Amino acid sequence: MASFSVVNNIASATAQANLHTTQAGLQKALNRLSSGYRINSSGDDAAGLVVANGYRTDVAIIEQGIRNANDGLSDLQIKDGAMSNIATLLDRLATLATQAASGTTSLESRTTLNDEFKDVVDEIGREADVARLTAAGTATETSFDVYVSQDHGSITGRIASVSTGSTSLAIDALNLTSAPTSAVTAVKDAIAALGKAQSKVGALQNRLQYAISLAQSQSVNKKAGESRIRDANVAEESANMTRYNILTQSGVAALAQANQSTSAVLSLLRG
Question: For the chain, how far is it from start to end, CA to CA, in angstroms?
Fold first, then answer.
């Protein structure tokens, strides 16, 4: 049996509760569409947020590792360029030493050749210093270390020092006026030593290129993983917004109708 009451309008309360739920859904859909994210607060998906944040942190580390590797690659390219130029200078030393070793070359000419020889040796030392190819102290190798990431580790190696001292190329004490044939042999040995250093630089360059390629692939995959969790599905949220808009309009109409229903009670009081 139906009853009439003006104290509690149950129909209106029900309509208000449903309208509140609809408004919350509409607000969430609008928030997701405007931000582009499905997760805008931890309450949206607490477990998913943890996983997405983990992916985001991994991406930040990997991308910095890529920058580290590129910086290391640039350093190796500088060294490689300097070594190529030093190789050209060593060729000039070999030419001067061979010319001085000939019996037809006079002592005066050897002195002139030796002066140029010393200048070229000095230039090799200067370029080695500029490219940071000279090891500290008496070491014969320089260390190379690029930290890529915790997962990828470090790219490490040792590059033979390219200085003009006795510990590396051993050409600073050569003299074309007194021992030109020895100078020819020493320069050939220096060229061989430089070739080994160049091969090490090339191998490290290749390792860095491979590391960069792998890190870029992992960065893309982890970004995709984060996107699947964190990003909003625009098509789905657009459909939700349309649905909640319709429910809002119908809910407002139902609430107005529920509020009007109590006026029927007044007809019972009319005489």
Answer: 24
pLDDT tens figures, 43-93: 888 999 999 999 999 999 999 999 999 999 998 998 899 999 999 999 999
Q: Among candidates 99, 128, 129, 123, which has minimal Cα distance to 113? A: 99
Q: Is the pTM of this model over 0.85?
A: no
Fold of 47-229: f41 fragment of flagellin, N-terminal domain (1.20.1330)
The answer to whether residues 160 and 128 touch, using CB atoms and an 8 Å cutoff, is no
Distance CA 220, CA 212 (A): 12
Q: Which residue stretches of the chain are H helix?
A: 10-35, 46-101, 107-130, 180-230, 234-261, 266-269
Helix segments in 102-233, DSSP class H:
107-130, 180-230
Check if the beta carbon of residue 252 is closer than 8 Å to that of residue 102: no
